[in-house]
Amino acid sequence: MDPATLAALYTAFYTALGTLGLVAADTYINANTMYLETTVSEGVKEEGYEPEVVDGIFVAEAKKITSTPSLVAAPKIQSSKTVPVSAALAKAAGLESALVALQGLMGFIPPKMVASIIAEDQKQRVQVVQSSNGGVSEHVVGEEADLKLVLTGYDPQTGYFYVTVEGRTADEDVDELIKDAAFEAVLKLEPYLALLYRVNERAEAGEDLAPARKLIDEAIAAQPGAIVHKHRALLENLRGIVALLEQNQILARQDFSRAIASDPNQPVGFLNLAFLEVHEDHYQEAIRLAEKVIHPKMWPVTTDPVLRASGYTIKGVAETEMGDYRAAGESFRNAVALNPKSSEVYVYWARMLRKAGRPAEAAEKFDMARQNSIHFENFPEMALLYFWLTEKGQVPLERRLGMVEEL
């Protein structure tokens, strides 16, 4: 194609996209979307794993991981196997390179990832059969190959990356290889949400938390040594939750304190340390910490109603244990005003009323807790929303599994 024709096509394509606003729209809409392309070796295709199958498993797993409930982090990268409109038009016109050039001029490199399943060291499984006359024959009973999945891609925050996941064979579950790769991809792109997912997954399954703690340790070690660092604070807080799951309150206290030091403007560290102070019967200190979130001296640490309601709930439980039922009732009312869908507020409020010798009102509050149980949700990073507070500090913490009749 001569330069003049190419220039004309390029100009027409640029004008068409500019007129429709597709380049700008794609830049705005798709800047946080990671598009996935997949290649699969022939041997794996024969097992039914066409690229679109791998795409589906990978994207579904990545979305599951990044959908772990969090009050302090939202996914920055969404997964998709659908290309942007401008990319589809460019491909149809055979002008993909022109689109890339346009995006480059706009300072935009779209997030993209390529997943390749590769079969290595393919070999035959042979069965040796010995006959009655002493002869030996070999029969091929199947083939196997060491598999690995290679991820390459680009993300504006992470930059270019390369991840290899290996260790599976063709006669094992290829689905698990793909899911492992999805986790590694999210761990690379959004490490906090990946680790939050892993902690919750292992806790729900009753599995050893050491592997999750090791990943958190590695992530913390990789953070800059700055005195204040927001991402390190979240990781330190999450490691404190792991310590609570392991019934190690000493380590939990250390990590929550570190999280507060790393980011004094992040409320979860204060709330989790306040929760631990109530559990260990240090009620005044718990109230002091909770009030840093609900009654800051200078500026609000958070405007999130669920986090502020959690602060009031912890304060109300501490006041209950101190016998200040009037103050506790006021704290619980404030918590409900901020988070009317809460079930845990009504549980602790009912417990306070029962202690105060008001059983009829306690039963009424517990009915409200049961009604709100349809909204019940665990948040792994928040102690109050992941464990039930007990009335006695020596009683081990229990992870919230749903509504409880007694605490």
Automatic annotation (TrEMBL):
Start and stop residues of the TPR repeats: 309-342
Superkingdom of the source species: Bacteria
State the UniProt keywords alphabetically.
Repeat, TPR repeat
Q: Does the keyword Kinase apply?
A: no
Q: Which PANTHER family match?
A: TETRATRICOPEPTIDE REPEAT PROTEIN 6, UDP-N-ACETYLGLUCOSAMINE--PEPTIDE N-ACETYLGLUCOSAMINYLTRANSFERASE SPINDLY-RELATED
**What's the protein called, per UniProt?**
Tetratricopeptide repeat protein
Tell me which species this is from. Thalassobaculum fulvum
Per the UniProt record, the lineage of the source organism begins with: Bacteria, Pseudomonadati, Pseudomonadota, Alphaproteobacteria, Rhodospirillales
